[in-house]
Design a protein that fits this description.
about 600 residues, 28 helices, about 0% strand, globular, MFS_trans_sf, membrane, transport, BT1, FBT
């Protein structure tokens, strides 16, 4: 059989599987003309041409454009085999495989000249954007969760801080989801089936929270299930982005990451204002029911992901492996095995799922216990583990200051926009500052600006002619800008710590360490709230609670020495290479690349932030 590469133009090896109806009719005509069946040949008698008997006009045109020595029967054999194989495969194919073929009917030809952040539109690009957009728009439920605990379940501030921290537990084991999806295919797929499952889990969790939960235990269970679906889908879609960016220039990888971050940011901004107004107009359970719709978009987007079933071999793969196998068969034993390894099977690895997980865990532990990775990871944990009084302040703002859900939605909208401003400021003016110096000044400035909450509690701002609403709105935007600027160096530090070959797994592990620190900080804040006796009715010691949390903001400063001094040296060298036109290594990611990992996994509820 003649190889497909001799018949199709370069880059069109699988064209026979993507034919339009008109092309199929043309190919069937040529098949009938070249068929050895006399009955079929008789219907295509030769005409007045010099192209040979039985060859229709469509084949004449093809012969002029593709001059070769292929005989009509040889040409038809390819077409006939392709059509027969496709017909048989369709009758035996699963729902996933049929949907995969339908995705090719989405015509992006008219958009070929349009570029989205430098990327050509495609079904898969739409799917990736949808997943990240959903992660952003799920913020619609954040205020609803806080008001649900406060007004319907009547839970005190300290308990709210604990419960919202427990809901972020699934974000602490993100590498496990990567291990599972890589090692255990679900219904023959490692990516698409898991996205469908994650979307269904999220939708079920929010629906149950909307109609079937009446106590704190059930609410936490539903929030855990929803967080599990979001965290797992975040890992799966990150792996898809990494796979698609591999082998492409730095600009393509940066464009993919920017698109992901922008999609999540648009979703967050879209939901920010309505998260408060819907709670005020329709109640928390309506918001939970509305939120249940969005995870279904994650399930639907999986049908646009291009993924081959595990173990499936296409005719193109067989044709490409055939010459390698033939060539290796004539070589001596050891050389033949070496030459045929890529053609037949990959290097043997662990044979069972447990063995694969153990092998990957050992490799990850070997990287984590390195001093240049372990010590910065300890600093990242301590940085995030400082206590917070967010739950107590939420109760104070709603019960004492009388802030409505609609106004708090405005505050969230201003915070979302301020977060974008913080990224822009860091990426424009601060990304070249050495990390140690950057983190030191962020701690100092953050401690000073966080003291503004003490002004709000004391009422001093009223003497300056500022209303409570105006002061909180401005204070929230300023603190959000600073918080985003302080968060960016941590993401860049985590990205630069990852050694080559383990970037994705180790980055997910470091983000899990960061999430563990956030949960620890929430638990410490809850303990301090209980210690100072701050409740939904007694705010006598709220000033002392907030002052303690603000003072502890600078506590990680002595541990800056855990960061290797080589990081600043490498940063200066990388900046010099970039100015000279050299391409940066993968580990030296800019703010836009690192931000997508932080923002896309942002599941803040009651002040906790997960990445």
């Amino acid at each position: 059989m003649i190889s497909h590469s001799k018949y199709f133009a370069p880059g069109q090896q699988e064209r026979v599987f993507l034919l339009r109806p008109q092309q199929r009719r043309t190919m069937r005509t040529r098949m009938r003309a070249a068929s050895p069946d006399p009955d079929l040949i008789s219907s295509h008698r030769s005409g007045a041409n010099n192209m040979g008997p039985g060859l229709p006009t469509s084949s004449k045109v093809h012969a002029r454009h593709h001059p070769s020595n292929l005989q009509p029967l040889q040409v038809a054999a390819h077409d006939r085999d392709a059509i027969i194989d496709e017909s048989l495969d369709w009758s035996k194919s699963t729902l996933f495989q049929r949907m995969s073929r339908l995705r090719h009917r989405v015509n992006f030809g008219k958009l070929a000249d349009i570029r989205i952040m430098g990327l050509e539109p495609s079904p898969e690009l739409v799917a990736i954007s949808m997943v990240y957009f959903v992660q952003g728009i799920l913020g619609l439920s954040r205020l609803a969760v806080s008001f649900f605990f406060k007004d319907e379940l009547h839970i005190e501030p300290a308990e709210v801080a604990i419960l919202t921290g427990l809901s972020s537990l699934p974000w602490m084991i993100k590498p496990l989801y990567g291990f599972i999806s890589d090692s255990i295919p679900l219904f023959g797929y490692r990516r698409r089936s898991y996205l469908i499952l994650c979307g269904l889990m999220g939708s079920l969790a929010w629906l149950t929270l909307a109609y079937g939960v009446h106590d704190a235990r059930g609410a936490v269970a539903c929030m855990l299930l929803a967080s599990l679906g979001t965290a797992a889908s975040d890992v799966v879609v990150d792996s898809i982005v990494v796979e698609r960016a591999r082998g492409h220039p730095q600009s393509v990888s940066g464009s993919l990451q920017s698109l992901c971050w922008a999609s999540a940011a648009i979703g967050g901004i879209t939901s920010a204002y309505f998260s408060g107004s819907f709670v005020q107009e329709y109640g928390t359970r309506f918001v939970f029911g509305l939120t249940a719709i969005f995870p279904l978009a994650v399930s639907a987007s999986s049908m646009l992901i291009s993924e081959r079933p595990v173990g499936e071999v296409t005719p193109a793969d067989r044709e490409q492996s055939r010459p390698l196998l033939i060539a290796s068969s004539g070589l001596p034993g050891p050389i033949a095995k070496e030459g045929g390894a890529d053609a037949s099977t990959a290097a043997p690895g662990p044979s069972t799922v447990g063995a694969r997980l153990w092998h990957q865990s050992v490799a990850l532990w070997g990287a984590v216990r390195r001093k240049d990775i372990l010590l910065p990871a300890v600093f990242v944990f301590l940085w995030q583990a400082t206590p917070s009084a967010d739950s107590a302040m939420f109760f104070y703002q709603t019960n004492v200051l009388g802030f409505s859900p609609e106004f708090l939605g405005r505050v969230r909208l201003g915070g979302s926009i301020a977060s974008l401003a913080g990224v822009a400021i860091f990426n424009t003016w601060l990304k070249t500052v050495p990390l140690r110096r950057m983190l030191w000044w962020v701690m100092v400035v953050g401690t000073v600006l966080s003291s503004s909450q003490l002004i709000l509690i004391s009422g001093l701002h009223r003497q300056w002619g500022l209303s409570d609403q105006l002061f909180v709105l401005g204070d929230s935007m300023v603190l959000t800008v600073l918080g985003q600027i302080s968060f960016m160096p941590i993401l860049v530090l985590a990205a630069r710590m990852c050694p080559q070959g383990m970037e994705a797994t180790l980055f997910a592990t470091l983000m899990s360490v960061l999430n563990c620190g956030s949960m620890t900080g929430g638990a410490l804040g809850a303990g301090l709230t209980k210690l100072y006796g701050v409740t939904s009715e007694d705010y006598t010691n709220l000033f002392k609670l907030v002052a303690t949390c603000v003072a502890l903001t600078i506590a990680p400063a002595p541990f800056l020495s855990l960061l290797p001094s080589e990081l600043d040296t490498e940063k200066a060298a990388a900046d010099g290479e970039q100015e000279g036109g050299a391409e940066r290594p993968l580990g030296h990611q800019d703010a836009a690349t690192a931000a997508v990992h932080g923002q896309s996994g942002d599941t803040e509820e009651g002040g906790s932030k997960s990445v």
